[in-house]
Amino acid sequence: MQYIKQFDSIRALSISLVLISHWWPKDHLLNITPNGALGVDTFFVLSGFLITSILFQRKEELDEKGLLFNLKNFLVRRTLRIFPIYYILLTLLFILDARDGLLSTEYVYHFTYTSNFSIFKNEQLDGSFSHLWSLSVEEQFYLV
Questions:
Q1: Residue 114 has what DSSP assignment?
Q2: DSSP letters of 56-96?
Q3: Mutual orientation of helices 35-57 and 133-143 as an angle, nearest 10°?
Q4: Whole-angstrom distance between the N-terminal and C-terminal Cα of the chain?
Q5: Separation CA 135–CA 144 (nearest Å)
Q6: pLDDT tens, residue by residue, 20-75
């Protein structure tokens, strides 16, 4: 798929919306709209668009080599792109945030990309690790 420069602007806007929602109080003028939800939803829409575009581009290859080959190829590429930095981040957060003890009590959720289930089960965010829920949802989307 050809790189689309304009998506960088949409990503920057989405990041800004999420940061605004976290940095300013909920009753602040900047948070009149649900900025965090809009930013996250935009990221998910972009991901869905890009993944679907890749799949449509590879349709000929899919027909030629089969679904399992292409699925394996896709999952390997995504794994090599996301897993190394994710586990480096988890390690750094564990070292820097050892005082909270969140990773040590919920480590299985974080290491298995199911931290969104942990948030649901505990009915609260995981402090320094709460942002990992979106990667969990994305990985679960890939598996489905």
A1: -
A2: HHTHHHHHHH-HHHHHHHHHHHHHHHHHHHHHHHHHHHHHH
A3: 30
A4: 22
A5: 14
A6: 998 888 888 888 899 999 999 998 899 888 878 877 777 777 777 777 777 777 77
Instruction: Report the pLDDT averaged over residues 98-103.
Output: 59
Q: Which residue has the tokens 């300013």?
A: 24
- Whether this prediction's pTM lies above 0.90 is answered by no
Q: Considering only CA atoms, which of 133, 137, 139 is closest in space to residue 74? A: 139
- Token pair listed for 72: 């394996």
What's the CA gap between 110 and 132, in Å, rounded?
7
The total of other beta-carbon atoms located within 10 Å of residue 79's CB is 13
The answer to whether the CB of 142 falls within 8 A of the CB of 78 is yes
Q: Which own/partner contact pairs does 61-66 have at CB distance under 8 Å and 24+ positions apart?
A: none
Query: Are 132 and 110 contacting, i.e. CB atoms less than 8 angstroms apart?
Result: yes
More confident residue, 117 or 143: 117
